[in-house]
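Example 3.2
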Amino acid sequence: MHDESVIVLQGPRAVGKSTLLRELAIARGREVIDLDDLGTRDAVAADPALFVRGEAPVLIDEFQHVLELLDAIKAELNRDGSPGRFVLTGSTRYATLPAAAQALTGRAHRVDVLGLSQGRSRGCARTSPKFF
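Structure, written as tokens:
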């Protein structure tokens, strides 16, 4: 884990952010809060504070679907700001969100997740760095 309280995995669609988050969930014995799921999204929107409580890391996929979640995370970090509390993924770059939605400025470490070239994904080191 990183020294920051929040890690934001960001990048274009279909580069592996959700896959990386699921692998982390397996390794840490956690569930992923998947905001692409409409039922989950509605439940989180109804009570974001409920979903940010719990043992670290709290793993949230496609956070941009419920931006109120960021305020709930900020409030939770005021109680416990230990490193690695939250890992979020999103296809929207965090820095491009409206200023009101950037509740975690200064508390989040953004990590760009980029696709690999077809050759690199097959283990060939001599390919050019073209992305999917």
